[in-house]
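#data-curation
PF: Archiving a pair of folding outputs for the training set. Convention for this channel: one message per protein, sequence first, structure tokens after, nothing in between. First:
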Amino acid sequence: MLTTDWKPNKSSSVPLHQQITDFMKQKIANGEWTVGYRLPPQRTFAKALGVNRSTVVTAYDELIAEGLIEGKSGSGTRVVNNTWNLLATAPPPDWNSYVKVGTHKPNLPTIQEINQAEFTPNIIRLGTGELSPSLIPGNSMKQIFQQLSNKEITYGYEEPKGLLPLRKQISNYLRTIGISASPSSILIVSGALQALQLISVGLLHRGSAVLTEKPSYLHSLNVFQSAGMRLVGIPLDKEGIQAKLIPAYKKQQNAALLYTIPSFQNPTGTLMTEERRQQLLDFCQQEQLPLIEDDVYRELWLDETPPTPMKASDKQGLVLYLGSLSKTLSPGLRIGWMVGPEPVVDHLADIKMQTDYGSSSLSQWAAAEWFSSGLYAQHLVEVREQLKMRRDFTFDTLNKYFSELAVWEKPSGGFYIWLHLLPSLSMRKLFEKALAEGILLNPGNVYDHQAEQYLRISYSFASLPSIDDGLKRLSQIVKAIAK
């Protein structure tokens, strides 16, 4: 899917096709669309610009006639000249070749489409893994910044591990969930994803394997693959990752590390039992296999408090523990934390300084204020109430429209319901058809290429009327495709 911040002016006296031609010429002349750049398909471009396909065809034909673009069967339409080419003493760089050989792999095509479609007006986002704008405490956020305006705070760079007052507050918070961690063993990061990026480039050897659940959110990213590692999935059951398989997987796969989301796993919503957590920690200690415990959903329990984090029982410094405010409070703050042995934290803090010179100091002060004021604990109570209501509503809605089309489990927290579709159908066809109908899905195969008949359904983002409307229409699409 193509997105553009420009659209032709339909009230202008200049014909639409001429406006589009001039726009494309400007892109080419400015070097934004370089020689070799592949233009979007005509139908896709027309949809993005809100015009008929014939209008775009006319614009393409004019540029072809002027020798600026060229269309070839099977390879699409590409820029072949930039009007300055003929006068240049040397050809311009082929930026496409640079893009292809870059070390960081692009997102999966479906993930790219999802990331772009999320900003389409009025689209129903049935899989989005974040809080609804109505659940983000805007008034309290204003109160926090008002309180900060009356305090002496710094606006420059913070020390490598992050703002000390924030690390002290997080240390206090971690104590309430059983984790003893001094501020010196805490690294402030711009969301838990940055912690994974730092770990991938700072701690692991190229060619080694990272073990994780199957399916897992981690499979929808290229964080470790771009650093030269492989992801290897270990099957899940209702109690969590099957820990007993770890020794064999470690030996066979040359595994360097294990990544898990024990509390309300993404995408399945599975809550790892206390017994399985201990078993997992025991196997990792026995195998000397470092463990990343990604606990960003922990505080979003809806029925009862989840088991104690594995980090609380870690006496060997084996566990790197990740937390974040992105899922519970606001993704816009971009504040998370990693807890680990001080040498590891020191090393990753040094790498972080080389990449961004520290997370936003203003966001760090705001996060510290959320903790110290007591507003964060109060907000968690309120957001759990809202999410529980949303979960129950979505569960009832699925019963209404999908009782004969799918099976699923009722999660006890987090954001997600892992929907197993019963009719055998093309997930790609379902994704495209739903998108054309204004419904954005998160197909299961982006989390596990074998999960072809699954959808990650989120009850955290879309409004309740949108959830009802989206699931109703989605059930009709499933029936139509399955015929």
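PF: Second:
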Amino acid sequence: MPRRKTSLKRKRADKKRRLRNIKVKHQLKKTLKKFQALLAAKNITEAKSLLGKVFSELDKAAKKRIIHPRTANRKKSRLVKRLSKTR
């Protein structure tokens, strides 16, 4: 158990940050699954409209360093490839 006030504050801040990161990751995963389900159902028009939202969420997560920026870029690239293959 930490003794210093700064250590206690750091512990509280880490907990808040961790909960925020988990929330963002879950939302991102949910959106990605929704996009992949649309691709599997060959629903191209809705998938295209959802692609912007997916890109936005990936970029926001990368900006907050919840995921690595290169991971976000790689995922975006692969999603666009999958979308172009299903046409």
